[in-house]
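Pipeline run #58 for the internal structure catalog. This entry was flagged by the ingest filter as a single-chain record with no existing model, so it goes straight to prediction. Upstream metadata was stripped on purpose; only the residue string is passed forward. Reviewer on rotation: M.T. Logging verbosity set to normal.
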Amino acid sequence: MTQCWKIYLFDMMGCEREKFICLKLRGRLANQMFDYAFLYAYARKKGLSMITPPSDLTKAFGIQPKTGDQYGFSR
């Protein structure tokens, strides 16, 4: 079960938590850059936190990966 599905499960159970958006990186670097930029802008507009897995994108640009572990959702 992925971290995002665990978060949705907690939502269905009615648990209070911070609101998230999950980034699933697919494709090569350019596709990952577009996905990250779009979700970053959307998350800022809606006041959401992003769950970002470690990847080539986070390494190349020094982005601190944020996983569900930091919010109490382990793998």
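catalog note: Residues 2-61 form one domain.
catalog note: The chain has one domain: 2-61.
status: ready for reviewer M.T.
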